[in-house]
Amino acid sequence: MLQLEGLVLGTGAKPFDLQCPPASLTVVLGRNLSGKSALCRVIAGLDSPAAGRVLVDGLDQAEVPLRQRPVAMVYQAFVNYPHWTVAQNIASPLRARGTDQQTMRRHVEAIAESVGLQPFLGRLPEQLSGGQQQRLAIARALAKDARVLVMDEPFVNLDYKLRETLREELVELVRARNICVVYTTSDPAEALALGDQLVLVAAQGPLQAGDPMHLYRAPASIAAADLLSEPGINRLEDAGVVYAVRPEHVDLEAPDAENRALTMTVQDTQTNGSQTYVYGVVQGQEWVARLEGLRQLQAGEHRTLYVRDADLLALPG
Amino acid sequence: MRSSRLAPWILGGYCLYLLLPLYWLLSMALRRNEDIVGRFEIVPAAPTLANFAEIFSNPVWYQGFANSLTYVALNTLISMAVAIPAAYAFSRYRFLGDRQLFFWLLTNRMAPPAVFLLPFFQLYSSIGLFDTPLAVALAHCLFTVPLAVWILEGFMSSVPRTVDEMARLDGHRFGFFFFRIFLPIIRGGLGVTVFFCFMFSWVELLLARTLTGSETKPIAVVMTRTVSASGLDWGVLAAAGVLTVIPGALVVWFVRRSLVRGFALGRV
Known about the structure:
The complex is a heterodimer.
Chain A: E1 2-8, E2 16-20, E3 24-29, H1 36-44, E4 51-56, E5 59-60, E6 71-74, H2 86-96, H3 101-114, H4 130-143, E7 148-152, H5 160-177, E8 180-185, H6 188-194, E9 197-202, E10 205-210, H7 212-217, H8 222-227, E11 234-238, E12 241-245, E13 250-251, E14 260-271, E15 275-282, E16 285-292, E17 302-307, E18 313-314
Parallel strand pairs in A: 3-8, 3-9, 6-7, 7-8
Antiparallel strand pairs in A: 1-2, 1-4, 4-5, 9-10, 11-12, 12-18, 13-17, 14-15, 14-17, 15-16
Chain B: H1 2-29, H2 33-38, H3 50-57, H4 59-92, H5 98-107, H6 117-126, H7 133-157, H8 161-170, H9 174-185, H10 187-203, H11 206-210, H12 219-224, E1 227-228, E2 231-232, H13 234-264
Antiparallel strand pairs in B: 1-2
Protein backbone atom coordinates (compact mmCIF):
# COMPACT_ATOMS: atom_id res chain seq x y z
CA MET A 1 0.00 0.00 0.00
CA LEU A 2 1.40 3.38 -1.05
CA GLN A 3 0.16 6.49 0.70
CA LEU A 4 0.90 10.10 -0.09
CA GLU A 5 0.13 12.41 2.82
CA GLY A 6 -0.02 16.12 2.14
CA LEU A 7 2.74 15.70 -0.42
CA VAL A 8 3.71 19.07 -1.91
CA LEU A 9 6.06 19.12 -4.89
CA GLY A 10 6.80 22.81 -5.29
CA THR A 11 6.20 25.91 -3.24
CA GLY A 12 2.64 27.16 -3.58
CA ALA A 13 1.36 23.90 -5.07
CA LYS A 14 -1.61 22.00 -3.70
CA PRO A 15 -0.84 18.83 -1.71
CA PHE A 16 -1.38 15.25 -2.90
CA ASP A 17 -3.35 12.97 -0.59
CA LEU A 18 -3.55 9.57 -2.16
CA GLN A 19 -3.88 5.90 -1.33
CA CYS A 20 -2.82 3.21 -3.78
CA PRO A 21 -3.84 -0.30 -2.66
CA PRO A 22 -1.81 -3.37 -3.73
CA ALA A 23 -2.50 -4.93 -7.14
CA SER A 24 -3.85 -1.62 -8.39
CA LEU A 25 -2.90 0.81 -11.10
CA THR A 26 -3.01 4.50 -10.30
CA VAL A 27 -2.78 6.60 -13.43
CA VAL A 28 -1.53 10.17 -13.15
CA LEU A 29 -2.79 12.19 -16.10
CA GLY A 30 -1.30 15.56 -16.87
CA ARG A 31 0.12 17.63 -19.69
CA ASN A 32 3.82 18.22 -20.26
CA LEU A 33 5.55 20.05 -17.41
CA SER A 34 2.63 19.44 -15.07
CA GLY A 35 4.93 17.79 -12.55
CA LYS A 36 4.26 14.13 -13.39
CA SER A 37 7.94 13.26 -13.50
CA ALA A 38 8.58 15.26 -10.34
CA LEU A 39 5.89 13.22 -8.57
CA CYS A 40 7.48 9.98 -9.81
CA ARG A 41 10.91 11.04 -8.62
CA VAL A 42 9.60 11.96 -5.18
CA ILE A 43 7.76 8.65 -4.79
CA ALA A 44 10.89 6.79 -5.93
CA GLY A 45 12.93 8.77 -3.42
CA LEU A 46 15.22 10.42 -5.97
CA ASP A 47 14.05 13.90 -4.92
CA SER A 48 12.68 15.22 -1.65
CA PRO A 49 9.21 16.75 -1.48
CA ALA A 50 8.75 20.36 -0.39
CA ALA A 51 6.41 19.04 2.29
CA GLY A 52 4.44 15.91 3.17
CA ARG A 53 5.22 12.23 3.43
CA VAL A 54 5.45 9.15 1.27
CA LEU A 55 4.50 5.97 3.12
CA VAL A 56 4.86 2.39 1.94
CA ASP A 57 2.98 -0.12 4.09
CA GLY A 58 2.70 2.53 6.75
CA LEU A 59 6.43 3.27 6.89
CA ASP A 60 7.58 6.84 6.24
CA GLN A 61 10.05 6.58 3.37
CA ALA A 62 12.00 9.65 4.43
CA GLU A 63 13.62 7.42 7.05
CA VAL A 64 14.56 4.69 4.54
CA PRO A 65 17.81 5.05 2.57
CA LEU A 66 17.25 5.22 -1.17
CA ARG A 67 19.03 1.92 -1.81
CA GLN A 68 16.66 0.10 0.53
CA ARG A 69 13.35 1.60 -0.52
CA PRO A 70 10.78 -0.93 -1.74
CA VAL A 71 10.21 1.18 -4.87
CA ALA A 72 11.23 0.45 -8.45
CA MET A 73 11.06 2.84 -11.36
CA VAL A 74 10.74 2.69 -15.14
CA TYR A 75 11.74 5.78 -17.07
CA GLN A 76 10.31 7.20 -20.26
CA ALA A 77 13.68 6.77 -21.97
CA PHE A 78 14.76 3.13 -22.10
CA VAL A 79 17.34 3.04 -19.32
CA ASN A 80 19.36 -0.17 -19.12
CA TYR A 81 23.00 -0.93 -18.43
CA PRO A 82 24.44 -0.94 -21.95
CA HIS A 83 27.45 -3.15 -21.21
CA TRP A 84 25.45 -5.92 -19.51
CA THR A 85 23.45 -8.62 -21.22
CA VAL A 86 19.70 -8.92 -20.80
CA ALA A 87 20.22 -11.58 -18.13
CA GLN A 88 22.74 -9.45 -16.23
CA ASN A 89 20.46 -6.43 -16.45
CA ILE A 90 17.53 -8.32 -14.98
CA ALA A 91 19.81 -9.79 -12.31
CA SER A 92 21.07 -6.35 -11.26
CA PRO A 93 18.73 -5.77 -8.27
CA LEU A 94 19.17 -9.40 -7.17
CA ARG A 95 22.93 -9.02 -7.32
CA ALA A 96 22.76 -5.86 -5.20
CA ARG A 97 20.91 -7.90 -2.60
CA GLY A 98 23.52 -10.66 -2.65
CA THR A 99 21.28 -13.40 -4.00
CA ASP A 100 23.08 -16.68 -4.67
CA GLN A 101 23.77 -17.69 -8.26
CA GLN A 102 21.23 -20.46 -8.47
CA THR A 103 18.31 -18.49 -7.09
CA MET A 104 19.32 -15.58 -9.26
CA ARG A 105 19.28 -17.65 -12.44
CA ARG A 106 15.88 -19.09 -11.57
CA HIS A 107 14.41 -15.65 -10.87
CA VAL A 108 15.91 -14.09 -13.98
CA GLU A 109 14.48 -16.81 -16.17
CA ALA A 110 11.05 -16.58 -14.62
CA ILE A 111 10.94 -12.81 -14.99
CA ALA A 112 12.33 -12.90 -18.53
CA GLU A 113 9.61 -15.35 -19.44
CA SER A 114 6.87 -13.20 -17.94
CA VAL A 115 7.91 -10.24 -20.12
CA GLY A 116 8.75 -12.31 -23.21
CA LEU A 117 12.50 -11.75 -23.18
CA GLN A 118 13.59 -15.34 -22.63
CA PRO A 119 15.02 -15.86 -26.15
CA PHE A 120 17.23 -12.77 -25.75
CA LEU A 121 18.92 -13.39 -22.40
CA GLY A 122 22.40 -13.34 -23.93
CA ARG A 123 21.95 -10.16 -25.94
CA LEU A 124 23.04 -6.63 -25.14
CA PRO A 125 20.33 -3.95 -24.77
CA GLU A 126 21.40 -2.22 -28.00
CA GLN A 127 20.62 -5.43 -29.88
CA LEU A 128 16.98 -5.24 -28.80
CA SER A 129 14.11 -3.29 -30.36
CA GLY A 130 12.65 -0.31 -28.53
CA GLY A 131 9.75 -2.33 -27.16
CA GLN A 132 12.09 -5.05 -25.94
CA GLN A 133 14.36 -2.50 -24.30
CA GLN A 134 11.45 -1.11 -22.33
CA ARG A 135 10.37 -4.66 -21.46
CA LEU A 136 13.87 -5.17 -20.13
CA ALA A 137 13.60 -2.04 -17.99
CA ILE A 138 10.28 -3.34 -16.64
CA ALA A 139 11.79 -6.77 -16.04
CA ARG A 140 14.61 -5.23 -14.01
CA ALA A 141 12.12 -3.22 -12.00
CA LEU A 142 10.09 -6.38 -11.34
CA ALA A 143 13.23 -8.26 -10.32
CA LYS A 144 13.63 -5.83 -7.44
CA ASP A 145 10.38 -7.31 -6.13
CA ALA A 146 9.36 -3.90 -4.85
CA ARG A 147 6.01 -3.06 -3.28
CA VAL A 148 5.64 0.00 -5.49
CA LEU A 149 6.44 0.38 -9.17
CA VAL A 150 6.62 3.91 -10.56
CA MET A 151 6.36 4.25 -14.35
CA ASP A 152 6.97 7.64 -15.90
CA GLU A 153 5.28 7.64 -19.33
CA PRO A 154 6.90 4.28 -20.04
CA PHE A 155 5.42 3.58 -23.47
CA VAL A 156 5.33 7.05 -24.97
CA ASN A 157 8.39 6.42 -27.15
CA LEU A 158 6.86 3.30 -28.68
CA ASP A 159 4.55 2.94 -31.64
CA TYR A 160 0.82 2.81 -31.13
CA LYS A 161 0.24 -0.93 -31.62
CA LEU A 162 3.11 -1.93 -29.38
CA ARG A 163 1.92 0.49 -26.72
CA GLU A 164 -1.45 -1.29 -26.57
CA THR A 165 0.15 -4.72 -26.31
CA LEU A 166 2.53 -3.66 -23.56
CA ARG A 167 -0.28 -1.96 -21.68
CA GLU A 168 -2.30 -5.17 -21.62
CA GLU A 169 0.74 -7.15 -20.49
CA LEU A 170 1.40 -4.62 -17.78
CA VAL A 171 -2.09 -4.96 -16.31
CA GLU A 172 -1.65 -8.75 -16.14
CA LEU A 173 1.74 -8.40 -14.47
CA VAL A 174 0.39 -6.00 -11.88
CA ARG A 175 -2.55 -8.22 -10.98
CA ALA A 176 -0.36 -11.31 -10.75
CA ARG A 177 2.27 -9.69 -8.54
CA ASN A 178 0.17 -7.80 -6.10
CA ILE A 179 2.21 -4.64 -6.53
CA CYS A 180 0.99 -1.09 -6.54
CA VAL A 181 1.74 0.80 -9.74
CA VAL A 182 1.86 4.55 -10.29
CA TYR A 183 1.72 5.22 -14.01
CA THR A 184 1.91 8.65 -15.58
CA THR A 185 0.62 9.57 -19.01
CA SER A 186 -0.54 12.54 -21.05
CA ASP A 187 -3.00 10.47 -23.08
CA PRO A 188 -6.60 10.55 -21.74
CA ALA A 189 -7.56 7.40 -23.65
CA GLU A 190 -4.72 5.52 -21.99
CA ALA A 191 -5.63 6.92 -18.59
CA LEU A 192 -9.26 5.88 -18.91
CA ALA A 193 -8.43 2.43 -20.24
CA LEU A 194 -5.73 1.56 -17.74
CA GLY A 195 -6.40 3.07 -14.37
CA ASP A 196 -8.13 1.64 -11.34
CA GLN A 197 -7.65 5.08 -9.94
CA LEU A 198 -7.07 8.30 -11.84
CA VAL A 199 -5.33 11.43 -10.64
CA LEU A 200 -5.50 14.57 -12.74
CA VAL A 201 -2.54 16.88 -12.23
CA ALA A 202 -1.58 20.36 -13.35
CA ALA A 203 1.44 22.52 -12.60
CA GLN A 204 -0.20 23.80 -9.40
CA GLY A 205 -0.82 20.31 -8.03
CA PRO A 206 -3.57 17.69 -8.21
CA LEU A 207 -6.88 18.74 -9.78
CA GLN A 208 -9.03 15.75 -8.97
CA ALA A 209 -8.66 12.08 -8.09
CA GLY A 210 -10.96 9.07 -8.15
CA ASP A 211 -12.53 6.41 -10.30
CA PRO A 212 -11.72 7.14 -13.98
CA MET A 213 -15.31 6.81 -15.21
CA HIS A 214 -16.56 8.99 -12.40
CA LEU A 215 -13.99 11.64 -13.25
CA TYR A 216 -14.97 11.54 -16.87
CA ARG A 217 -18.67 11.95 -16.09
CA ALA A 218 -18.25 14.52 -13.35
CA PRO A 219 -15.09 16.58 -13.76
CA ALA A 220 -14.66 19.05 -10.91
CA SER A 221 -13.36 21.87 -13.06
CA ILE A 222 -12.96 22.96 -16.64
CA ALA A 223 -9.23 22.19 -16.37
CA ALA A 224 -10.08 18.63 -15.28
CA ALA A 225 -12.57 18.21 -18.12
CA ASP A 226 -10.00 19.61 -20.54
CA LEU A 227 -7.39 17.08 -19.42
CA LEU A 228 -9.77 14.18 -19.95
CA SER A 229 -10.84 15.32 -23.39
CA GLU A 230 -8.86 14.60 -26.54
CA PRO A 231 -8.76 17.04 -28.28
CA GLY A 232 -9.35 19.71 -25.61
CA ILE A 233 -12.62 20.89 -24.18
CA ASN A 234 -14.68 23.73 -25.67
CA ARG A 235 -15.79 26.70 -23.60
CA LEU A 236 -19.18 28.30 -24.07
CA GLU A 237 -20.13 31.46 -22.20
CA ASP A 238 -23.80 32.03 -21.58
CA ALA A 239 -25.28 34.64 -19.22
CA GLY A 240 -22.03 34.93 -17.24
CA VAL A 241 -21.62 31.16 -16.77
CA VAL A 242 -18.82 29.27 -18.53
CA TYR A 243 -19.90 25.83 -19.74
CA ALA A 244 -17.61 23.08 -20.96
CA VAL A 245 -18.65 21.21 -24.08
CA ARG A 246 -16.93 17.99 -25.15
CA PRO A 247 -15.88 17.85 -28.82
CA GLU A 248 -17.86 14.61 -29.29
CA HIS A 249 -21.07 16.32 -28.12
CA VAL A 250 -21.03 18.80 -30.97
CA ASP A 251 -23.09 17.93 -34.05
CA LEU A 252 -23.75 19.30 -37.51
CA GLU A 253 -27.35 18.08 -37.60
CA ALA A 254 -30.08 18.60 -34.99
CA PRO A 255 -31.94 15.38 -34.17
CA ASP A 256 -34.45 17.21 -31.97
CA ALA A 257 -35.63 20.73 -31.33
CA GLU A 258 -34.09 21.20 -27.90
CA ASN A 259 -30.64 21.67 -29.33
CA ARG A 260 -28.85 24.93 -29.04
CA ALA A 261 -27.57 26.32 -32.35
CA LEU A 262 -24.15 27.96 -32.63
CA THR A 263 -22.27 29.34 -35.60
CA MET A 264 -18.69 28.24 -36.21
CA THR A 265 -16.20 29.80 -38.59
CA VAL A 266 -14.30 26.75 -39.82
CA GLN A 267 -10.51 27.04 -39.86
CA ASP A 268 -9.27 23.55 -40.43
CA THR A 269 -10.38 19.93 -40.59
CA GLN A 270 -8.36 16.82 -39.83
CA THR A 271 -9.51 13.29 -40.30
CA ASN A 272 -8.26 9.84 -39.44
CA GLY A 273 -10.84 8.18 -41.69
CA SER A 274 -13.36 7.11 -39.09
CA GLN A 275 -13.55 10.48 -37.37
CA THR A 276 -13.19 14.11 -38.46
CA TYR A 277 -11.97 16.91 -36.21
CA VAL A 278 -13.27 20.35 -37.19
CA TYR A 279 -11.35 23.29 -35.75
CA GLY A 280 -12.85 26.78 -35.79
CA VAL A 281 -14.04 29.79 -33.83
CA VAL A 282 -17.36 30.02 -31.94
CA GLN A 283 -18.26 33.28 -30.20
CA GLY A 284 -14.62 34.32 -30.22
CA GLN A 285 -13.43 31.04 -28.62
CA GLU A 286 -11.33 28.31 -30.21
CA TRP A 287 -13.53 25.25 -30.66
CA VAL A 288 -13.11 21.74 -31.91
CA ALA A 289 -15.83 19.31 -32.90
CA ARG A 290 -15.39 15.55 -33.29
CA LEU A 291 -17.67 14.17 -35.98
CA GLU A 292 -18.15 10.56 -37.02
CA GLY A 293 -16.99 9.53 -40.46
CA LEU A 294 -15.22 11.45 -43.18
CA ARG A 295 -16.48 15.02 -43.55
CA GLN A 296 -15.47 17.71 -45.99
CA LEU A 297 -15.66 21.30 -44.69
CA GLN A 298 -14.13 24.35 -46.30
CA ALA A 299 -11.89 26.70 -44.36
CA GLY A 300 -13.63 30.05 -43.88
CA GLU A 301 -17.08 28.42 -44.16
CA HIS A 302 -19.74 29.33 -41.57
CA ARG A 303 -21.52 26.25 -40.24
CA THR A 304 -24.26 25.86 -37.70
CA LEU A 305 -23.40 23.49 -34.87
CA TYR A 306 -25.81 21.93 -32.42
CA VAL A 307 -25.23 21.18 -28.77
CA ARG A 308 -27.74 19.61 -26.39
CA ASP A 309 -28.34 21.54 -23.19
CA ALA A 310 -27.91 18.30 -21.25
CA ASP A 311 -24.31 18.08 -22.53
CA LEU A 312 -23.33 21.48 -21.19
CA LEU A 313 -21.11 21.05 -18.13
CA ALA A 314 -21.34 23.96 -15.77
CA LEU A 315 -17.97 23.91 -14.05
CA PRO A 316 -15.90 26.28 -11.99
CA GLY A 317 -12.68 27.75 -13.40
CA MET B 1 35.22 11.20 -63.96
CA ARG B 2 38.75 12.54 -64.28
CA SER B 3 38.88 13.27 -60.59
CA SER B 4 38.13 9.66 -59.73
CA ARG B 5 41.10 8.51 -61.84
CA LEU B 6 43.29 11.06 -60.14
CA ALA B 7 42.17 10.26 -56.61
CA PRO B 8 44.22 7.06 -56.10
CA TRP B 9 47.36 8.87 -57.21
CA ILE B 10 46.82 11.76 -54.82
CA LEU B 11 46.08 9.38 -52.00
CA GLY B 12 49.05 7.20 -52.90
CA GLY B 13 51.32 10.22 -53.06
CA TYR B 14 50.18 11.38 -49.66
CA CYS B 15 50.71 7.96 -48.10
CA LEU B 16 54.19 7.83 -49.63
CA TYR B 17 54.92 11.26 -48.18
CA LEU B 18 53.84 10.06 -44.74
CA LEU B 19 55.47 6.66 -44.82
CA LEU B 20 58.75 7.42 -46.58
CA PRO B 21 60.52 8.89 -43.52
CA LEU B 22 59.36 5.95 -41.43
CA TYR B 23 60.55 3.51 -44.06
CA TRP B 24 63.86 5.29 -44.34
CA LEU B 25 64.29 5.11 -40.58
CA LEU B 26 63.68 1.36 -40.64
CA SER B 27 65.98 0.84 -43.57
CA MET B 28 68.76 2.79 -41.85
CA ALA B 29 68.24 0.78 -38.68
CA LEU B 30 68.92 -2.37 -40.68
CA ARG B 31 72.19 -1.17 -42.27
CA ARG B 32 75.73 -0.71 -41.05
CA ASN B 33 77.18 2.78 -40.70
CA GLU B 34 79.52 2.31 -43.70
CA ASP B 35 76.58 1.40 -45.93
CA ILE B 36 74.49 4.33 -44.71
CA VAL B 37 77.19 6.87 -45.37
CA GLY B 38 78.81 5.17 -48.33
CA ARG B 39 76.02 4.17 -50.70
CA PHE B 40 72.52 5.10 -51.67
CA GLU B 41 70.23 2.08 -51.35
CA ILE B 42 66.46 1.95 -51.38
CA VAL B 43 66.40 -1.65 -50.12
CA PRO B 44 69.23 -2.57 -47.72
CA ALA B 45 71.61 -4.84 -49.63
CA ALA B 46 73.05 -6.45 -46.52
CA PRO B 47 70.45 -6.13 -43.75
CA THR B 48 71.71 -6.60 -40.21
CA LEU B 49 70.16 -6.65 -36.75
CA ALA B 50 73.43 -5.53 -35.13
CA ASN B 51 72.06 -2.07 -34.36
CA PHE B 52 69.12 -3.51 -32.40
CA ALA B 53 71.49 -5.92 -30.67
CA GLU B 54 73.59 -2.96 -29.57
CA ILE B 55 70.56 -1.27 -28.00
CA PHE B 56 69.41 -4.35 -26.13
CA SER B 57 72.91 -5.12 -24.84
CA ASN B 58 74.11 -1.61 -23.96
CA PRO B 59 72.69 -0.44 -20.58
CA VAL B 60 72.83 3.23 -21.61
CA TRP B 61 70.34 2.47 -24.37
CA TYR B 62 67.95 0.09 -22.66
CA GLN B 63 68.07 2.07 -19.44
CA GLY B 64 66.92 5.06 -21.48
CA PHE B 65 63.87 3.13 -22.65
CA ALA B 66 63.18 1.85 -19.17
CA ASN B 67 63.46 5.37 -17.71
CA SER B 68 61.09 6.82 -20.27
CA LEU B 69 58.54 4.06 -19.85
CA THR B 70 58.71 4.40 -16.06
CA TYR B 71 57.81 8.07 -15.92
CA VAL B 72 55.27 7.72 -18.75
CA ALA B 73 53.52 4.90 -16.88
CA LEU B 74 53.68 6.84 -13.61
CA ASN B 75 52.27 9.91 -15.28
CA THR B 76 49.43 7.99 -16.92
CA LEU B 77 48.59 6.30 -13.63
CA ILE B 78 48.56 9.52 -11.60
CA SER B 79 46.64 11.42 -14.29
CA MET B 80 43.92 8.79 -14.48
CA ALA B 81 43.66 8.43 -10.71
CA VAL B 82 43.18 12.18 -10.35
CA ALA B 83 41.16 12.89 -13.48
CA ILE B 84 38.50 10.18 -13.15
CA PRO B 85 36.99 11.47 -9.88
CA ALA B 86 37.44 15.08 -11.01
CA ALA B 87 35.68 14.47 -14.32
CA TYR B 88 32.86 12.65 -12.52
CA ALA B 89 32.36 15.62 -10.23
CA PHE B 90 32.31 18.05 -13.16
CA SER B 91 29.91 15.82 -15.04
CA ARG B 92 27.47 15.02 -12.24
CA TYR B 93 27.51 17.78 -9.63
CA ARG B 94 26.87 21.50 -9.70
CA PHE B 95 29.04 23.40 -7.26
CA LEU B 96 30.20 26.95 -6.75
CA GLY B 97 32.56 27.98 -9.53
CA ASP B 98 32.38 24.65 -11.35
CA ARG B 99 32.34 26.16 -14.82
CA GLN B 100 35.12 28.61 -14.07
CA LEU B 101 37.23 25.83 -12.61
CA PHE B 102 36.61 23.65 -15.63
CA PHE B 103 37.65 26.45 -17.96
CA TRP B 104 40.68 27.22 -15.84
CA LEU B 105 41.79 23.60 -16.21
CA LEU B 106 41.81 24.11 -19.94
CA THR B 107 43.76 27.34 -19.79
CA ASN B 108 46.60 25.37 -18.19
CA ARG B 109 47.07 23.82 -21.59
CA MET B 110 47.76 27.21 -23.14
CA ALA B 111 51.10 27.66 -21.40
CA PRO B 112 54.09 26.09 -23.17
CA PRO B 113 56.03 23.61 -21.01
CA ALA B 114 59.11 25.81 -21.22
CA VAL B 115 57.40 28.35 -18.96
CA PHE B 116 57.50 25.88 -16.10
CA LEU B 117 61.06 24.74 -16.58
CA LEU B 118 62.70 26.99 -14.08
CA PRO B 119 60.19 26.71 -11.22
CA PHE B 120 60.08 22.94 -11.54
CA PHE B 121 63.86 22.67 -11.66
CA GLN B 122 64.31 24.79 -8.52
CA LEU B 123 61.45 23.22 -6.60
CA TYR B 124 62.41 19.65 -7.36
CA SER B 125 66.06 20.29 -6.63
CA SER B 126 65.25 21.72 -3.23
CA ILE B 127 63.11 18.77 -2.15
CA GLY B 128 65.28 16.08 -3.66
CA LEU B 129 62.95 15.09 -6.44
CA PHE B 130 65.40 16.05 -9.15
CA ASP B 131 66.57 13.19 -11.35
CA THR B 132 63.74 10.81 -10.39
CA PRO B 133 61.03 9.39 -12.66
CA LEU B 134 58.44 10.88 -10.28
CA ALA B 135 59.74 14.40 -11.04
CA VAL B 136 59.03 14.09 -14.74
CA ALA B 137 55.73 12.30 -14.14
CA LEU B 138 54.49 15.06 -11.82
CA ALA B 139 55.63 17.81 -14.15
CA HIS B 140 53.80 16.18 -17.04
CA CYS B 141 50.68 15.87 -14.88
CA LEU B 142 50.33 19.63 -15.08
CA PHE B 143 49.44 19.13 -18.72
CA THR B 144 47.91 15.66 -18.84
CA VAL B 145 45.49 16.05 -15.91
CA PRO B 146 43.52 18.96 -17.44
CA LEU B 147 43.48 17.15 -20.77
CA ALA B 148 42.31 13.93 -19.13
CA VAL B 149 39.57 15.71 -17.16
CA TRP B 150 38.40 17.46 -20.30
CA ILE B 151 38.19 14.26 -22.37
CA LEU B 152 36.68 12.13 -19.60
CA GLU B 153 34.04 14.71 -18.75
CA GLY B 154 32.74 14.46 -22.31
CA PHE B 155 32.48 10.68 -22.15
CA MET B 156 30.93 10.71 -18.69
CA SER B 157 28.33 13.31 -19.60
CA SER B 158 27.27 11.16 -22.53
CA VAL B 159 26.06 8.57 -20.00
CA PRO B 160 22.61 9.67 -18.87
CA ARG B 161 22.28 10.55 -15.21
CA THR B 162 19.33 8.16 -15.06
CA VAL B 163 21.84 5.29 -15.16
CA ASP B 164 23.29 6.56 -11.86
CA GLU B 165 19.80 6.77 -10.38
CA MET B 166 18.80 3.38 -11.74
CA ALA B 167 21.81 1.77 -10.07
CA ARG B 168 20.91 3.35 -6.74
CA LEU B 169 17.29 2.26 -7.09
CA ASP B 170 18.49 -1.25 -7.93
CA GLY B 171 20.23 -1.13 -4.56
CA HIS B 172 23.88 -0.91 -5.66
CA ARG B 173 26.48 0.76 -3.48
CA PHE B 174 28.30 3.72 -5.00
CA GLY B 175 31.55 1.80 -5.25
CA PHE B 176 29.91 -1.04 -7.13
CA PHE B 177 28.11 1.39 -9.40
CA PHE B 178 31.25 3.40 -10.14
CA PHE B 179 33.68 0.57 -10.78
CA ARG B 180 31.41 -2.16 -12.11
CA ILE B 181 28.80 -0.15 -14.00
CA PHE B 182 29.93 3.38 -14.74
CA LEU B 183 33.58 2.94 -15.67
CA PRO B 184 32.91 -0.13 -17.86
CA ILE B 185 30.31 1.88 -19.76
CA ILE B 186 32.87 4.57 -20.60
CA ARG B 187 35.80 2.16 -21.06
CA GLY B 188 36.30 3.56 -24.56
CA GLY B 189 36.79 7.00 -23.09
CA LEU B 190 39.25 5.64 -20.56
CA GLY B 191 41.25 4.13 -23.42
CA VAL B 192 41.33 7.41 -25.32
CA THR B 193 42.40 9.32 -22.23
CA VAL B 194 45.18 6.86 -21.43
CA PHE B 195 46.33 7.23 -25.01
CA PHE B 196 46.58 11.01 -24.80
CA CYS B 197 48.34 11.03 -21.44
CA PHE B 198 50.75 8.39 -22.67
CA MET B 199 51.50 10.18 -25.91
CA PHE B 200 52.05 13.57 -24.32
CA SER B 201 54.45 12.17 -21.79
CA TRP B 202 56.20 9.91 -24.31
CA VAL B 203 57.02 12.64 -26.82
CA GLU B 204 57.63 15.54 -24.42
CA LEU B 205 61.33 16.29 -24.37
CA LEU B 206 62.00 19.65 -22.74
CA LEU B 207 60.78 18.94 -19.21
CA ALA B 208 61.98 15.36 -19.35
CA ARG B 209 65.48 16.48 -20.25
CA THR B 210 65.71 19.30 -17.74
CA LEU B 211 64.38 17.39 -14.76
CA THR B 212 66.61 14.35 -15.20
CA GLY B 213 70.32 13.88 -14.69
CA SER B 214 72.55 10.91 -15.33
CA GLU B 215 70.39 8.45 -13.34
CA THR B 216 67.08 8.66 -15.18
CA LYS B 217 67.96 9.97 -18.61
CA PRO B 218 64.98 9.39 -20.96
CA ILE B 219 65.45 7.68 -24.32
CA ALA B 220 65.01 10.87 -26.33
CA VAL B 221 67.88 12.43 -24.43
CA VAL B 222 70.08 9.38 -24.92
CA MET B 223 69.38 9.66 -28.62
CA THR B 224 70.56 13.26 -28.80
CA ARG B 225 73.79 12.40 -27.01
CA THR B 226 75.13 9.60 -29.17
CA VAL B 227 77.76 11.66 -30.87
CA SER B 228 81.00 9.91 -30.00
CA ALA B 229 84.61 10.44 -30.93
CA SER B 230 84.16 8.22 -33.96
CA GLY B 231 81.31 10.36 -35.25
CA LEU B 232 77.58 9.80 -35.33
CA ASP B 233 76.34 6.25 -34.89
CA TRP B 234 73.65 6.43 -37.59
CA GLY B 235 72.48 2.86 -37.49
CA VAL B 236 71.99 2.59 -33.73
CA LEU B 237 70.28 5.96 -33.66
CA ALA B 238 67.84 4.82 -36.34
CA ALA B 239 67.18 1.57 -34.49
CA ALA B 240 66.39 3.54 -31.33
CA GLY B 241 64.04 5.70 -33.37
CA VAL B 242 62.19 2.63 -34.61
CA LEU B 243 61.84 1.32 -31.06
CA THR B 244 60.52 4.70 -29.90
CA VAL B 245 57.71 4.65 -32.43
CA ILE B 246 56.50 1.19 -31.39
CA PRO B 247 54.84 1.96 -28.00
CA GLY B 248 52.83 4.81 -29.54
CA ALA B 249 51.74 2.64 -32.45
CA LEU B 250 50.69 -0.11 -30.01
CA VAL B 251 48.57 2.24 -27.92
CA VAL B 252 46.88 3.68 -31.03
CA TRP B 253 46.10 0.15 -32.17
CA PHE B 254 44.36 -0.69 -28.90
CA VAL B 255 42.24 2.43 -28.66
CA ARG B 256 41.55 3.04 -32.36
CA ARG B 257 37.78 2.42 -32.07
CA SER B 258 37.32 4.59 -29.00
CA LEU B 259 39.46 7.26 -30.61
CA VAL B 260 36.86 7.68 -33.34
CA ARG B 261 34.15 8.04 -30.70
CA GLY B 262 36.28 10.59 -28.88
CA PHE B 263 36.60 12.63 -32.02
CA ALA B 264 32.84 12.39 -32.55
CA LEU B 265 32.30 13.84 -29.08
CA GLY B 266 34.51 16.73 -30.08
CA ARG B 267 36.66 16.42 -27.00
CA VAL B 268 39.81 15.01 -28.51
